[in-house]
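In line with agreed milestones, the collection of sequences with tokenised folds has grown. A representative record is reproduced below.
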Amino acid sequence: MSSILEHPDDERFFIEHVEPLIASVEQKGVYLHFLFRCPLSGYEVPAKIKPGEELENSLSPALSGNPRLAGLLQSALRSGSERQEGTDYTVDEIEEAACDAFESVSKEFFWDGSRWTHWEADDKVLNFLSYGELLEGIDEEQRAILRRVLSSVALADGKVEASERELLETLLGGDSGLGSHEGVPSPQELKKLKTRSVAGAVVCLGYAIACVDGHLDHTEEELLSTVCEAVGLGTLKQWELKKTAQAFVFDEALAHTYSEGSANNEERLEVYKFGKGLGLSIPDLRELEWRFLRRTGLTPET
């Protein structure tokens, strides 16, 4: 790799991981202009770079097994009015330049252990908020079912913590439903939730109520499992909804921890303990903290 690359031995920036993001590459003078595109969201970001000085005119066979990238690079190597003498870059040099160029914009992307995506793609906190927005448009009959499910979850373990009451009032617009609780809706009543998306949103908010006190009680999860069964949501979807709610709750805890704009190691340790109590792994917590800091424009303490 060229000297521009900060981490030449970091496999995240090897060409096999950068190549799927390359939407186009074009040469203008001595510069190569790359356009990187997230495979999930379609988010695009440009980057330009001047490859190394020692140039050759021959093409490397390195991409014989990768016709898509080879085609992009052949386009970059075509002669044009903006080309300058001595700027026939080899495939190897363009590969190195692609890795260098991507690293320069990689703060816009998240590495999930196997691939890069835009940092907002599959952001569980944003997914949770979209569920909340979805429920804003439901009718009164469905809203009554939502209120009963959420209040049932809050009461499932025999006590309602202050954090549960506060989140209930936030989600339900000030009406927690605890004062006139009618019990868990029957399977027939739950079927009045008109779409799977609405049913999923109800379950996701139910998990948020269950987790906001820092502990997911088995009685709360059993109740939500019953709801999922009644509305036809499988175990994989239920797991996804739980993870989404846990991410939101941990994100809210991070917002409190970073309320002054930064957090020391002791404060971060405490919020990580809270996250582990929710059932999240250390890699989960690191990803969620990274996304939180990226979303809010903050940086971790050094």
